[in-house]
């Protein structure tokens, strides 16, 4: 058997090939892309016959992309290894723990040679499952990004306009964003009328808009400590920028959510996931994305449960 460590970067791959004893047979650097994959196949062919591709075990720090697909298509057994695992393994082997591309390639080859029974192989999921994975992860990333920007907006408001935090429970909500865009500082907010606030609430389809508008106006007019005028102007510009970013993210999250539902709905296992209590299309798509649909990925139900216990389901829900 051959054990290959593949430390990938944006434009190249550092490769180390070992035999079953851990002896290094070759090391090389190949460019990303078709030419690089062909060179890797040629290197493997120097040590194994073409019909022995299943005797090639590859460790790499990703489970996606055309390079990984090319390795799987060649018949190699591919293990996607978390970079943190590689870092811990490297520390075991070296006192300094110094990182380098060649050292990581060596560590990856070592890991698949000695610990492949504890590693997770890249599943042979269907194209439909891969498509669900792409859009589900993109949708989740957009939500995470919105959360980060909402926290930044909250921190800015806390510095110069704390009354806004009393007025708006959810800084990502459409009404809060509309009003903060119109009135991003205490003086402008105090001049907002009941009609203006009510209009924003109605645009966001809020119930009892008039009553809520009075509560919001009272909160915005609360006495508070002030920053100097020049500093307030600077903070207001920051609020406008964050509001614009969050508004764009809201729109893209909605668009990507529709894509998630569309791709998930086309998968033959969608009805099975949706039959589970409390699981809608978005959560169902995330769970499918993490578990995959390769029939041979899990030996039995217990294996799948072990995978869940190690964080697959929590990753989907996050």
TrEMBL record:
Gene Ontology terms: biological process: DNA transposition
Single GO MF annotation: transposase activity
Domain (Transposase IS110-like N-terminal): residue spans on this chain: 4-162
InterPro entries: Transp_IS110-like_N, Transpos_IS110
Pfam families: DEDD_Tnp_IS110
Domain of life: Bacteria
TM ranges: none
Record's protein name: Transposase
Source species of the chain: Actinopolymorpha pittospori
């Amino acid at each position: 058997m051959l054990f290959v460590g593949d430390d990938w970067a944006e434009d190249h791959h550092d490769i180390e090939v070992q035999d079953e004893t851990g002896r290094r047979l070759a090391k090389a650097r190949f460019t990303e892309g078709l030419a690089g994959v062909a060179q890797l196949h040629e290197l493997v062919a120097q040590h194994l016959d073409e019909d022995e591709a299943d005797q090639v075990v590859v460790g790499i720090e990703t489970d996606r992309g055309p390079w990984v697909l090319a390795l799987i298509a060649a018949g190699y057994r591919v293990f996607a290894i978390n970079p943190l695992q590689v870092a811990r393994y490297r520390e075991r082997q070296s006192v300094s723990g110094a990182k380098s591309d060649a050292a990581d390639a060596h560590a990856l080859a070592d890991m698949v040679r000695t610990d492949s029974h504890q590693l997770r192989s890249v599943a042979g999921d269907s194209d439909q499952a891969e498509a669900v994975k792409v859009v589900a992860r993109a949708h989740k990333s957009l939500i995470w990004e919105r959360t980060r920007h909402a926290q930044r907006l909250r921190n800015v408001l806390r510095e110069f306009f704390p009354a806004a935090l009393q007025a708006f429970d959810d800084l990502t909500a459409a009404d809060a964003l509309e009003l903060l865009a119109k009135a991003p500082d205490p003086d402008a907010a105090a001049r907002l009328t009941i009609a203006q606030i009510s209009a924003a609430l109605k645009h966001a389809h809020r119930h009892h808009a008039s009553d809520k508008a009075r509560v919001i106006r009272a909160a915005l007019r609360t006495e508070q400590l002030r920053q100097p005028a020049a500093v307030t102007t600077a903070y207001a510009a920051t609020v406008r920028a964050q509001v614009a970013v969050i508004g764009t993210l809201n729109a893209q999250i909605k668009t990507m959510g529709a894509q998630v539902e569309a791709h998930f709905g086309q998968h033959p296992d969608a009805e099975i996931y949706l039959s589970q209590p409390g699981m809608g299309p978005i959560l169902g798509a995330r769970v499918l994305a993490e578990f995959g649909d390769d029939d041979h990925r899990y030996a039995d139900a217990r294996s799948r449960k072990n995978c869940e216990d190690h964080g697959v389901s929590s990753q989907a829900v996050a």
